[in-house]
From TrEMBL:
<protein>
    <submittedName>
        <fullName>Polyphosphate polymerase domain-containing protein</fullName>
    </submittedName>
</protein>
<dbReference type="InterPro" id="IPR018966">
    <property type="entry name" value="VTC_domain"/>
</dbReference>
<dbReference type="Pfam" id="PF09359">
    <property type="entry name" value="VTC"/>
</dbReference>
<dbReference type="InterPro" id="IPR042267">
    <property type="entry name" value="VTC_sf"/>
</dbReference>
<feature type="domain" description="VTC">
    <location>
        <begin position="8"/>
        <end position="225"/>
    </location>
</feature>
<dbReference type="GO" id="GO:0006799">
    <property type="term" value="P:polyphosphate biosynthetic process"/>
</dbReference>
Length: 233
């Protein structure tokens, strides 16, 4: 069964490693650690992003189109235990995400570009994927790897994440290979911080973030990783 999240705010920042270490220590006192994290409150995320034959989703992001969607497969800790098919939608300044757990054989079928059977799926997300694969030749384009550290708070469902060690798989698409060769995308001194919440960011959490010097940015890990390809964007 697909899970559809309601529209939420998502603020993104590039921050220095020094700012990250300060904020991480502070948030660890005030917020809760993500239950998915290990003893260091970290876990590995690998996403395989899809795009159309003309890279429509890439160009929409670069052009700043207000309402857009992107599709990906996502796994954690390089394991096929939980494979998620996700569609993330942006509507102005708000985002929502639809997520569906799928078996590995279906994931491999989608990666291979085979939409057979998806047209009969009862889940709308799979039907949507089928139409895109048939009409716009949706296909996998790039693997995005990083380490995530996350903190949560029940008020307004706040979630603050630090994404570190961002790597790209370049032209490789074998997302279930734990030894997949990857290359770093960002300077080692940069960390991507994301702040997500429902309606209003609580004042005491906003105050904790007030001291950072970074400006809000339209960070896209997908775009950053695709810039390593030999093509003009």
């Amino acid at each position: 069964m697909a899970v559809r999240a309601s529209l939420r705010h998502e603020l993104k920042y590039y921050i220095s490693y020094g700012e990250y270490t300060h904020l991480s220590r502070t948030l660890d006192y005030v917020l809760q650690r993500d239950p998915a994290g290990d003893e260091y409150n970290e876990y590995a995320i690998r996403s395989l992003y899809f795009d159309t034959i003309f890279d429509d989703f890439l160009h929409e992001k670069i052009s700043g189109v207000g309402n857009r969607r992107k599709y990906r497969l996502r796994i954690y800790r390089y394991s096929d235990k939980d494979i998620k098919l996700e569609c993330k939608a942006k509507r102005g300044d708000l985002i929502s995400k639809e997520s569906l757990l799928i078996p590995r054989d279906l994931a491999e079928q989608i990666i291979a570009g085979d939409p057979t059977g998806l047209e009969r799926a009862a889940v709308p997300l799979l039907g949507e994927l089928y139409r895109l694969m048939r009409t716009r030749l949706l296909h996998p384009v790039v693997i995005v790897d990083y380490i995530r550290e996350a903190y949560i708070h029940p008020a307004e469902d706040v979630r603050i994440t630090f994404d570190k060690q961002l790597h790209t798989g370049l032209g490789r698409l074998d997302m279930f290979n734990p030894r997949l060769p990857t290359v770093p995308v960002l300077d080692h001194n940069l960390v991507v911080m994301e702040v997500k919440f429902n309606r209003v960011l609580p004042d005491h959490i906003r105050a904790l973030l007030h001291g950072i010097s970074a400006q809000r940015s339209a960070v896209s890990k997908y775009v950053l990783c695709r810039r390593f390809e030999e093509k003009e964007f």
